[in-house]
DNA sequence: ATTAGGG
DNA sequence: CCCTAAT
């Protein structure tokens, strides 16, 4: 039997892609003195020997490596050096314990040597520790659990020992209770032959005291060797003290890093108190991964069950694991943990996502820049808005939101843009308002003007803002305060309506504000996206038709410019969509007609003449509504593009 | 950045 | 309306 395990190798920057050179890490964080870790694949022979993994073997786990890579990189970068994942593949009986971040091409032979060297050290520590019984009491990984985790081991034979030892090795740098790592498989180990190897006497004689490794007894030469093993490079430094310090630092630091306190019990990981052995964590990691040993294609998810988390997303799960291993001890409480996960979950947020976030935020802090004018302009109008000013106390508080990225517990602060406006920036109408104390009245005027002509941008914008205040007094403050075009739009649907009244068909007043129109729809990605529906007004439709007649269908950006420059919403795409619906409606509507229309929908039917116009235009352009000939009126509304009910505004 | 289409 | 693909 053979086992492929990963060997973590403390690297000081010399080894290949540990590229996270120390210089940079040193710069990035004062406390990141530790060295990145590089894991290499090796195979543990039955007798405990280590053999460089073959390319094939590497290939087998390559995917896995790749998978973890991104995460690992960060981890390594931050000096959080411990990450062992093991997987068992195929029923061949091979057990692969793989430590991520390994490009298999490294000098395995060298690694091998290092490994053995380190192993010795570990054994030493182990020995010492085992003599210190007290620590033992902290061991919480009950055998039952471990048994479950090591199905392969249960099958007896030499394998167990090798695994155990590798585990030990992997986490040897952890805290003083290395032996605990082997504990889990204890029972099995005893039956193993190589168990003795683990506990065999060694030369290097270090001992650890209160987290500090005493290397005093080592000779310079030994120190050099140890150094080499530890950092993966030679050193010419003769200073014993320096060497000792360097080595000790490396070793203990890694301990600190994963000093998380967990207890594994009943397949769950629960937090332990500080004093408790940190090695458990590592063991847990390995063990949980080991749990996958079952079948070849077991997915990560399986192992996560061990951690007691519901696995709703493999990726998340994996991240979670990392967090648990490396950062939880810093986070402290579950909530934060969750936040961490959440934050990670949305890494690389989509543009839209970001925007929505900011939208929420802006809604919250609405006032700000427009605050002054709001107070002056609407004080008399709506007393209710008074509540808000308090917030102004924090002027620019949230220009920046820094989220604490705990990757590897590095504590790197990542600044996030808090506000992103989807639509293009608009002129700040609030400033305009300033000059028109009467606000509403002025706006009304403007809107009227706009009605006659095509209205300039600013004018129409204003009208949009101010027009239908009466219908929704509560929202007034929003009107004045809303500053982004989008928000404005949302806040008020008015303007156009007022205009509509001029028309023969009066359009029922929008009973809902933009906010109420916001509907969250579940997204495939689990996220919820906001979908606001802004009913098309007759005026808009008319404009659209005019535009189409003028520019022809398809030239929507042009139409948008000409006829809808004032409507910040209604993108060219919207126009296109609306036209599509109109087209459909016009054709579908003709035959059957009025019958079912009525007020059922709460929206007014599109005046026939409009539809006729549309039809004509369509004819002119030889446009035929999709599926017209075939599926006609049957599902008129249903066939409409999204929420736009055919034949209605 | 615009358009066309699907959802 | 939203999202994408194709221009």
From TrEMBL:
Region Disordered: start-end pairs: 1-30, 325-384, 450-489
Keyword list, A-Z: Nucleus
Domain HTH myb-type: 528-587
Provenance organism: Pisum sativum
Bias kind Basic and acidic residues: ranges: 325-342, 352-366
The organism's place on the tree of life at top rank: Eukaryota
Gene Ontology CC terms: nucleus
Myb-like domain residues: 536-583
Pfam families per the UniProt record, alphabetical: Myb_DNA-binding
Classification via PANTHER family: MYB-LIKE DNA-BINDING DOMAIN CONTAINING PROTEIN, EXPRESSED, TRF-LIKE 3
This protein's name: Uncharacterized protein
Keyword set includes Magnesium: no
Keyword DNA repair: no
Subcellular location, record wording: Nucleus
InterPro entries assigned to the protein according to its UniProt record, in alphabetical order: Homeodomain-like_sf, Myb_dom, SANT/Myb
Location, primary (coarse class): nucleus
